[in-house]
Amino acid sequence: IPGMFMPPVSDGARTLRPTIPIVAMTLAGFALTLWVFYPGIWTFDARYVYQDIAKHFYGDWQSPVMTLLWALIDPLAPGPASMFLLIATFYWLSFGLLALTMGRQSFWRGALVLLLALSPPAFVFVGVIWRDVLFAVTWLLAAALAFAVAGRGAKLRLPMQAIALGLLALGVLLRPNALIAAPILVAYIAWPTKFSWKRTVIVFVPTAIALYGLVQLVYYGALGATRQHPVQSMMVFDLGGISHFTKQNQYPVTWSAAENELLLTGCYRPTEWDLYWRHEPC
User: Fold this and answer.
1) What angle do CA 146, 152, 154 make, to 5 degrees?
2) Using CA of residue 223, residue 229, residue 234, residue 240, what is the dihedral sign?
3) Which of 66, 112, 229, 236 is the most buried (most CB within 10 A)?
């Protein structure tokens, strides 16, 4: 009979068999990410955040928490590389946890998860240094942790859920408008095996209010962030565009002749909505 003389396989060995190749594939994916993208692809927004580190400036146009986080990790690999390494680590740690969890049922399910991590819609963003990408991998890791410990004993599950909730809060501090979606993820982290829309609706408003309060406390209390009014910058851009096309000043301000000429013919471009904020002399 085939296999009758093979030594018995222990439960530990059965668990270890899919674990080793999945871990190896995860490390290979991380290495590929470094090879393709290192030291990361700058975006304009990320460059402004990084420049604020040297100025010791915290503004709320971008997230001041991202500025603080980047300042803390920057000595490890100065410049874009430090943030790129953090994003790539969170990304592959998330997919590695998902693959290991799925691999308990079938090695091929775990391997498929890692192949999805290499699919273009996800992989092309891993090398981009951008607040939205950092936010995405932070929440991805929070969800992966909750999924990985679902059904486990309280000694393991509760600490991992606490870490996941901390990552969720970090994500909201990186992208405050995420608090609209945050209560749904909070409900999943808290009850990963018994998710209920009714329970989610009950906790939605209190959770959103608490997270909003956290943003105010951290941004303007702990960090003393400067209010930069990004919403108003959109209004300024719109009025600038209307002034340009109508050749009439639409602002409630009287300009000098030189300023008025800039307003009507020199400043407006349909390429950057924040050009009145960043570009001299506009």
Assistant:
1) 90
2) negative
3) 66
